[in-house]
Amino acid sequence: MPGKVTSVLMVGVGGQGIILASKILARIIQKQGFDLKISEVHGMAQRGGSVVTHLRFGESVSSPIIDAGQADYILAGEKLEAWRWLPMLRTGGTVVTSTQEIKPVPVIMGAQKYPAKIMAALEQEAGGRVGSLVALDALALASACGQPRAANVVLSGVLSRLLGFPPEACEEAVREVVPPRFLAENMRAFRAGYQY
Fold first, then answer.
1. Which of 77, 80, 160, 189 could form a disulfide with 153 if both were Cys (CB 3.0 to 4.6 A apart)?
2. What CATH number does the domain containing 157 carry?
3. How many domains does the chain contain in total?
4. Confidence (pTM)
5. Is the Cα torsion angle 184, 18, 131, 38 positive or negative in sign?
6. Do 48 and 23 form a contact (C-beta atoms < 8 A)?
7. Are 24 and 10 in contact (CB under 8 A)?
């Protein structure tokens, strides 16, 4: 990727571990010797609001901020978040999303309805704005690995493979970022995503 800057937007809902997923990806990128800039927005994370991380890497990166229509990849921990942030994706970009549904506060309160057929709408975008769509039940994969809360790590594994990062460097990064008491389940979750 000499000279090219790759932009990754990581989005989800507070409590999904998007910040941890971005730390894992950032460590993997650093291990590959790329220049890296990262910006996190998580003010409403504790209230179930959106959590967003801008991550850009390459030979030389001047800014961490991804402009609308410029993300090469969107990683989403929840399908509504994938849809909400789709305008950030460049035409032909890749979306990696969990098919999980987490109802936002206005839906829980009855003020709004959760949009129907989001996955169908995303699939319709495939081949157009969305060049490639990888949709998976990351929660089920993480649960099978012994830790449902590691769906974020499953998604990190999927994206790491799409980015072409070697598995050894990826697993070393997971070991460095994830606390030891959670490492075994998270490593299984990362491998499940990487091999997906």
1. 189
2. 3.40.920.10
3. 1
4. 0.92
5. negative
6. no
7. no
